[in-house]
User: Which sequence fits this backbone?
């Protein structure tokens, strides 16, 4: 990716097409391969689930909590990829007539996101097979997408860059030596990352292209929109962390005391904020791209908003 970053935009679109063709995978033939999830294994690595920080849980309870978080991982990606794909289709319009390589790269991007949503729906069903009744995922992907797409394109592209960079960080966490990690989930991280690497480059190209047409006042409002979107993501995470902690407490087979319940809820929320906000927002490349577009006052505003969540 680093060599790609220094190439002119036209070459970068072409490289993304070539990479997309080279890494293309199939849900069944390459990822699922007839397997089911093994509930004797963790679904998320500790670096993401942070269950290793919850000393009051037994090893089997930590494993179960990582499985619940893995199911939510599939649902969250199914949700964010809905609005990402809609935005990609929308901005592809700018290239309908003109740069056909840019158009092809975005068409492939969209096709891949539709496939990823289908993959995550499969993972959700596989995770549901081994879990007791009662798990809930309340947010509706279409409703969330409608709200997100009501914000400025600059803000949606910045949030998308954050998300697509953190899928790379998540893949890196999944290749640690943890022998307890599900090989099927490991393959989900690996294959998702392979295609997301191109998406992150395209997000950046499109964000910079779009940014050039904004006035300083429009950009300033877009920064507010970005902060509002991060706040909306956090609202979803708060709701889901509470739902998942409750589900865990009801199904873990013992009565957690009030203090344990509190530590559980706080730990799951911290893990979700790390997974879905900070692992992207603190990514050096995200900070670099945003700093190239925003004034230092705007960067400080974004930084302060993120700090309020930490
Ligand atoms: Fe994706
Ligand atoms: Fe993507």
Assistant:
């Amino acid at each position: 990716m680093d060599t790609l970053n220094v190439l002119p935009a036209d070459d970068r679109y072409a490289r993304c097409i070539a990479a997309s063709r080279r890494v293309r995978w199939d849900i069944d033939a390459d990822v699922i391969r007839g397997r089911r999830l093994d509930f004797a294994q963790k679904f998320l690595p500790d670096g993401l689930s942070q269950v290793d920080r919850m000393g009051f849980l037994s090893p089997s309870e930590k494993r179960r909590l990582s499985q619940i978080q893995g199911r939510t991982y599939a649902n969250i990606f199914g949700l964010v990829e809905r609005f990402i794909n809609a935005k990609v289709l929308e901005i592809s319009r700018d290239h309908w007539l003109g740069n056909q390589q840019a158009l092809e790269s975005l068409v492939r991007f969209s096709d891949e996101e539709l496939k990823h949503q289908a993959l995550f729906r499969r993972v959700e069903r596989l995770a549901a097979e081994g879990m007791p009744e009662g798990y809930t995922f309340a947010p509706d992907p279409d409703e969330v997408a409608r709200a997100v797409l009501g914000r400025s394109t600059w803000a949606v592209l910045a949030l998308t860059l954050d998300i697509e960079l953190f899928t790379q960080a998540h893949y890196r966490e999944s290749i640690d030596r943890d022998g307890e990690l599900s090989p099927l989930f490991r393959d989900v991280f690996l294959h998702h990352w392979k295609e997301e690497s191109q998406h992150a480059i395209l997000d950046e190209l499109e964000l910079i292209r779009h940014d050039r047409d904004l006035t300083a006042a429009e950009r300033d409002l877009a920064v507010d929109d970005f902060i509002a979107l991060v706040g909306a993501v956090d609202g979803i995470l708060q709701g889901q962390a509470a739902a998942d902690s409750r589900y865990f407490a009801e199904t873990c087979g013992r009565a957690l005391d009030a203090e344990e319940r509190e530590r559980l809820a706080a730990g799951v929320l911290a893990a979700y904020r790390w997974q879905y906000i900070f692992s992207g927002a603190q990514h050096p490349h995200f900070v670099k791209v945003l700093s190239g577009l925003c004034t230092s006052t705007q960067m400080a505003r974004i930084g302060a908003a993120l700090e309020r969540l930490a």
Q: What stands out?
A: The chain is about 75% helix and 0% strand. The mean pLDDT is 95. Residues 81, 113, 116, 192, 196 surround fe (ii) ion (ligand 1) (CB under 6 Å). Residues 216-251 form the longest helix (36 residues).
